[in-house]
Design a protein that fits this description.
By secondary structure, this protein is an all-alpha fold. It has 9 helices and no strands. Helix 4 packs across helix 9. The chain starts with 13 loop residues before the first helix and ends in a 15-residue tail after the last helix.
């Protein structure tokens, strides 16, 4: 059961309704986690702005989703795992790749390095090793790419925390945190 209620369109103020209308026009729906963010239009705008700008970077959509899946699993956020499984499929990830991502890997060798780097950032609270950074560079990731991975880690941590703290009701096909054997 949700611990932070969603803002409903019917009871939303004018600013919240305008944000919901914009989200609806882009996504065809307003996910529950954004309805929770809407309690603070400033927080929702900040998240949407960062999300929009970060997604315009050099990381491809599949790698962004691989990172999101790995972190949702690592941080035990069932809402985010469910959402990013659906989004990842739309981005072209198949079931085997999604399973690998959840385990902190990838079938794509270069993407596996980014996924492992993202998990290390979370696990060590940013205190990565020089070897982990060199592995990113050796896999062909630029300084810009590395900063973008760090940015996506931060965004995913934010949504994982919101999803877990608020126990946001899942409005995507539910995916359980337990990995199938």
């Amino acid at each position: 059961m949700a611990r932070i209620n969603t803002v409903n369109y019917e009871t939303a103020n004018a600013e919240q309704k305008a944000l919901f209308d914009a989200i609806q026009s882009q996504l065809g729906m307003v996910p529950n986690f954004l309805k929770v963010f809407a309690h603070s239009p400033a927080a929702l705008k900040a998240f949407l702005g960062l999300h929009h700008i970060a997604n315009a970077g050099s990381l491809d959509p599949q790698t962004r989703e691989r990172i999101a899946l790995a972190l949702a699993q690592q941080n035990s956020c069932e809402y985010c795992l469910s959402a990013h499984t659906a989004i990842g499929r739309k981005a072209g990830l198949d079931s085997a790749e999604i399973k690998a991502n959840r385990a902190g890997a990838s079938q794509d060798a270069r993407a596996a390095v980014a996924v492992q780097f993202a998990r290390a950032l979370v696990e060590h609270q940013g205190e990565i090793t020089t070897a982990e950074l060199l592995e990113m560079r050796n896999a062909g990731y630029s300084e810009s790419d590395i900063v973008e991975v760090i940015t996506h880690v931060g965004m995913n941590l934010l949504t994982n925390i919101l999803g877990k703290a608020g126990r946001v009701d899942i409005d995507f096909p539910r995916v359980e945190l337990k990995l199938a054997a």
